[in-house]
Design a protein that fits this description.
The chain is of the alpha+beta class and 63 residues long. The protein contains two helices and three strands, in the order αβββα. β1 and β2 form a beta hairpin. The longest helix is centred in the N-terminal third of the chain and has 14 residues. The protein is globular and about 30 Å long. The protein starts with a helix and ends with a helix.
Length: 63
């Protein structure tokens, strides 16, 4: 599975969990972007991360 595929699947999980997130996208191979219901965004460095580390890094930025 590629990072892009993983981010797409994880996006559906985050939206389904009602965490005020409207989107999770891959900006480039090193950066994901979280988009919140209010329109704000946060970028997350996911360079060289395993899928487990991507989950941890993104969840730290959700709160």
């Amino acid at each position: 599975m590629t990072k892009s595929d993983f981010i797409t699947i994880f996006e559906l999980t985050l939206i389904s969990a009602n965490l005020d997130i409207t989107a999770l996208s891959l900006v480039d191979d090193n950066t994901a972007q979280i988009t919140f219901k209010g329109g704000g965004t946060r970028k997350v460095n996911i360079e060289a991360d395993s899928f487990n580390a991507i989950i941890t890094d993104i969840m730290e930025k959700v709160h």
